[in-house]
Amino acid sequence: MSAPTVPSTPAVPSLVYDATQDDLRSTLRRLLDSKSTSKHLLALAAEERGYDCALWTAVARDMGLAGLLVPENYGGAGASVREVAVVMEELGRALAPIPYLASAVLATSVLTSSLFDSDDSPDRVNPSNIAGEALGRLADGEIGALVVPATTGPTTEARSAAFGLRGRRIDGADRITLDGTVTGVYGADCAALFVVPAVVDGVETIALVEESVAGLSVSAPVSLDVTRPVFDVHFDGVEADVLISGPSAATALDTALDTGAAMLASEQVGVGDWALESARNYLTIRHQFGRPLGSYQSLRHRAAQLWIDNQQARAAAQYAAATLTENSSDTGVAVSMAKAYCAATALTAVEECFQMHGGIGFTWEHPVHFYLARAFTSTVVLGSAEDHHNAIGALVDLPAS
Questions:
Q1: Which domains occur in the chain, in start order?
Q2: Are 305 and 340 a contacting pair, CB within 8 Å?
Q3: How far is the first Cα of the chain from the last one, in angstroms, to the nearest whole number?
Q4: Span 47-89, pLDDT tens digits
Q5: Contact assessment for residue 24 and residue 83, using Cβ atoms and an 8 Å cutoff
Q6: Buried b (16+ CB within 10 A) or exposed e, 244-254
Q7: What is the pLDDT of residues 197-208, one digit of tens each?
């Protein structure tokens, strides 16, 4: 009698950073330590400039990090999501005021997906070279914006609502006109290219719009997070090129938003790391009643708990990035778990940092204010914790009551 067959268990991806990722981290950290300081953030907020163009040039073009997700034959690095996660951690730690999430993650992910026809072989390149040319421009440092509300969540209803604009074809060609307004868009003020989901003649479509086209305008509402502001984008008969349409368009958008949520989780790991490091340094140098604050047991226990929470968040974020890299069947659950947990953990870490600093934390000159705004807004960006918990429930067949 033959032995019973034991089903194989999928290998768990490694959550350890490799040498390439460590080198990437150290190089980027040195750059950000010199160019994205508290002084720079305060000056940026005072001038209401939104983004630091010089820093974007250094990160995107000089280091070549804007093209990490761009295939090599289109001028990029052809790297994996795991390398991008390392970059996002460091950008979160420095709170770098650049549109990396908007351009190098969200817009780039949609354009990369539109290169392929998902209904056929994944190796078949879309005959249209518009997406390839756009990816080359983004890899060279131009900025792209995915025109969806920043709060778009993981549910089917939210993803469908992201195709909120209406369009119509021009004489049956692959050119369309777009009308409507999309609110709460990242990177729209400095974008050269707009990747726009819309419904054209009842079909979900993703189009590409140049910044200089007639009928396109951008307005700036008040943003809580001045280091990553949101914008409203208005379309009035704007002409655009069709990139992809039909079920492939929805798949491309889903992939981009899932990637964005996972990368936002990695960014929040960096925010939590900064909060813990800042609190620890303050507890070491600040004395009360002749003793360093860090010698008080209650504060030491709170700092230790922050460290534990941050390590758990890092594991969740790394696992989400690994599942995306390997196109795992566990991707949906991993991404939603990471986004919900990491955002909440980062907010708690920054709030604890505030309290441990005591009175000094309530002066506007301290950078902890910027980190609090980033952590708070990130709890709802690309879906709230409730949205992702509901998504997890649906994925594991445990829907909310």
A1: 19-113 (1.10.540.10), 143-249 (2.40.110.10), 251-395 (1.20.140.10)
A2: no
A3: 49
A4: 766 688 889 999 999 999 999 999 999 999 999 999 999 999 9
A5: yes
A6: bbeebbbbbbb
A7: 999 989 999 999
